[in-house]
Design goal:
Layout lengths: L5 H8 L6 H11 L1 H18 L1 H4 L31 H37 L1 H15 L3 H12 L3 H27 L3 H8 L4 H9 L4 H24 L11 H12 L5 H28 L6
Helix pairs in contact: 2-3, 3-5, 3-13, 5-6, 5-8, 5-11, 6-8, 7-8, 8-11, 9-10, 11-12, 11-13, 12-13
Length: 297
């Protein structure tokens, strides 16, 4: 029987890593694709935060004289059919996409946690009613339901966040419920009951924290989905309205008419959307492997 080198095994698992810098290097070595995704996400976040300094030109300012100007010294990424600077619109568009993505993901996760925790912890007719409701919501694909919600609420930044958040609720609720069903039978929950803790306190302080690992992975994956759905809604004219610079709306305005004569109007918004979704997906996969021991190689 081969002997196991426990020290080497612990080192490979990162048990001896201390400090945030050492942990960052370990994560980069262990999950290089996840590190690439994290860098992409961080770059877009910093771009959104410092958009006014990176691209001080007003992204909504028009000038018919520079309509469809090619990329060059004056317009780094060219200008659109209204003479607006594409570089400034792409940079400021990161704010819209990330605001919608993070807002929709956060709202969907909060509602999903409340539904899933209530359903899994209380059980009985409450669980049955909430699960049938989530079944109805999951009957429609994410994009279709978001389109229905956006068409009902009307185009605005707030309504777009709500329209994307509601379809995200069932997946979160299912994950939280499945974790809660197993956790409520654990000895620490029985011990909390024994010392007289209330049901709400047990659910929030003891059960909920143990569901966070799968939730972090799911939330990261849903961030990319939310950004993609926002782009799709804006492409269909149901998302963030003008004058806000939205990557999806840029594609919608340019794809059909200017894809041959001014391809930069289509290329740059498409690259921005693809990179953001790609980065969040890579980061989500790495977090899944990091937080779920069953997924580790």
């Amino acid at each position: 029987m081969a002997l196991i080198d426990h020290e080497a095994a612990l080192a490979r698992a990162g048990a001896n890593v201390t400090g945030w810098w050492s942990r960052t290097l370990f994560f980069a070595r262990r999950y290089p694709l996840g590190a690439v995704g994290a860098v992409i996400v961080i770059v877009f976040v910093l771009t959104a935060v410092f958009a006014d300094f990176i691209a001080p030109v007003d992204p909504t300012a028009t000038n018919a004289k520079f309509s469809l100007a090619r990329p060059g010294a004056m317009f780094l990424l060219g200008a659109d059919f209204m003479g607006r600077d594409m570089f400034s619109r792409i940079i400021h568009g990161a704010r819209i996409s990330l605001a919608v993505g993070v807002g929709a993901m956060g709202l969907g996760v909060l509602i999903g946690i409340a539904v899933g925790l209530t359903s899994g912890y209380l059980g009985g007719w409450v669980d049955l009613a909430l699960q049938r409701l989530t079944d109805i919501m999951q009957a429609l694909p994410l994009l279709v339901m978001a389109i229905i919600m956006a068409a009902s609420l009307g185009p605005s930044l707030r309504n777009t966040i709500i329209a994307i958040a509601i379809p995200l609720v069932p997946n979160v609720a299912r994950v939280v419920r499945s974790s809660t069903l197993s956790l409520r039978e654990q000895p620490f929950v029985e011990a909390a009951h024994a010392v007289g803790m209330g049901e709400l306190r047990i659910a929030v302080r003891h059960v909920l924290p143990n569901t966070l690992a799968p939730l972090i992975v799911l939330a990261t994956a849903q961030l990319g989905s939310a950004i993609l759905v926002e782009a799709s809604l804006s492409f269909l004219g149901l998302g963030v309205p003008e004058p806000h610079p939205s990557w999806g709306r840029m594609l919608s305005e340019s794809a059909a008419e200017y894809v041959r004569t001014a391809p930069w109007l289509v290329i740059w918004p498409g690259v921005a959307i693809s990179l953001t979704v790609f980065g969040t997906n890579l980061l989500g996969d790495a977090l899944r492997d990091l937080l779920d021991p069953r997924q580790r190689s």
